[in-house]
Amino acid sequence: MKSARIREGFADPIISRVVVISFIVVIGFAGIEATYGLWTEARFGWGPRQIGLAFMLVGLAGAFFQGVMTGRLARRFGEARVLAAGLVFMFVGISTQGLSPNWPVAMVGFLFVCFGQSICFPNVSALISQAAPPDRQGEMLGLNTSGMALGRVAGPLAAGQAFSMIQPGAPFAMSAFLIVPALWFAWAIVRRTPRLA
Question: d(Cα 46, Cα 183) in Å, to the nearest integer?
Fold first, then answer.
């Protein structure tokens, strides 16, 4: 019974694409989270204090972006377009971080990622809620959460291997690479939801 409902969820062209976007983006993002402290230590000589301050700054910025800007952007441009824009910001920010020559540039990239994530993931939930029948919304949101949880398992494993076997910046390259197909799926959602976008 549950497998039939999961198949039914994946049969919906919007829900299936949103779930795939969440899964692959979380793989990359969780991989960066898992290796960020090691990367900043290798790249900039940071210790726990600097890493903690960086996450505090980005946490405050994320609360502002999500609390003040996400809803306004979604009302003006539609959830699908804001999702796609969030992925673009994440791609630019991750690339900037990975290629940064110094820590101030890396922090600018970190803020781009923070902004992108803040406007991206709330609209994932909104698109699923709009596409699912009213009596199935919780189930489809749970399906997406399960996919994200799997991504949080796979991401650190892949990023740890990339960090140790290739180079410290490899998790950023992996994450940026994963956002490319996510953008393709997001654009397909934009084209399927003209009334929302």
Answer: 33
Model pLDDT for residues 152-178, shown as the tens digit of each residue? 999 999 999 999 999 999 999 999 999
> Residue 119, CB half-sphere, CA atoms under 13 Å: how many?
29
Question: What fold does the segment set 16-192 form as a domain?
Answer: Growth Hormone; Chain: A; (1.20.1250)
The angle at the Cα of 93, spanning 182 to 176, to the nearest 5 degrees, equals 40
Q: Tell me: pLDDT of 4 over 90.
A: no
The DSSP call for residue 166 is T
CA distances 134 to 128, 182, 189, Å, are: 11, 26, 20
Closest Cα partner for 55 from 99, 112, 96, 114? 114
Residue 30 contacts residue 195 (beta carbons within 8 Å): no
For the chain, domain boundaries: 16-192
Please name the residue that has the structure tokens 């940026």.
176
Confidence of residue 67 (pLDDT cuts 50, 70, 90): confident
Residue in 35, 23, 40, 37 with CA at minimum distance from that of residue 157 = 35
Report how far residue 161's alpha carbon sits from residue 174's, in angstroms, rounded to the nearest whole number.
11
